[in-house]
Automatic annotation (TrEMBL):
The lineage of its organism: Bacteria, Pseudomonadati, Pseudomonadota, Gammaproteobacteria, Vibrionales. This is MSHA biogenesis protein MshP. The chain crosses the membrane at residues 12-31. Keywords: Membrane, Transmembrane, Transmembrane helix.
Length: 144
């Protein structure tokens, strides 16, 4: 039996269209994965920057609460008011200084009043869909 060449014309055209559609579908899915990876890396970098900025804000609050070179506590910062210490934000991805709030609480233990201080620092980096917030809390106790 011999195959008729005239009946097989166009077979290659249909196969090439199917192959092009499959390759196009695979490339679109690969593009979606790559875009997702790019967003994840951006958020991870901004999250790390926000974490370190919040950490710096908490350390600033501790230095205000326990001034270097002095003994005792300067609890003027612990009035529940939000403060924004001036931090160097150039080229950091963060556009706002951290928000630092200090609150004082007293606990009675064996007829002795012990003061505890909670410093909460919040930092926001990025904007829009890539906005990342990190919060750090530090607790300190006054030593008599």
């Amino acid at each position: 039996m011999f195959h008729n060449q005239t009946k097989q014309k166009g077979n290659l055209l249909i196969m090439s269209i199917v192959v092009m559609v499959v390759i196009g579908y695979l490339s679109l899915n690969l593009l979606k994965v790559e875009t997702s990876n790019s967003d994840t890396v951006s958020k991870e970098v901004l999250g790390t920057q926000a974490w370190f900025l919040a950490h710096s804000g908490a350390e600033w609050g501790l230095v205000q609460l326990f001034p270097l070179g002095q003994s005792g506590v300067d609890d003027a910062i612990c009035d529940g008011v939000e403060r924004n210490p001036n931090m160097a934000l150039a080229n950091s991805g963060c556009s706002h200084n951290p928000s630092v709030v200090c609150e004082r609480s007293e606990v009675s233990y064996h007829d002795e009043i012990i003061q505890y201080f909670k410093i909460k620092s919040t930092a926001i980096c990025g904007s829009g869909a890539n906005k990342v917030t990190r919060v750090q809390e530090v607790w300190a106790k006054e030593i008599n």
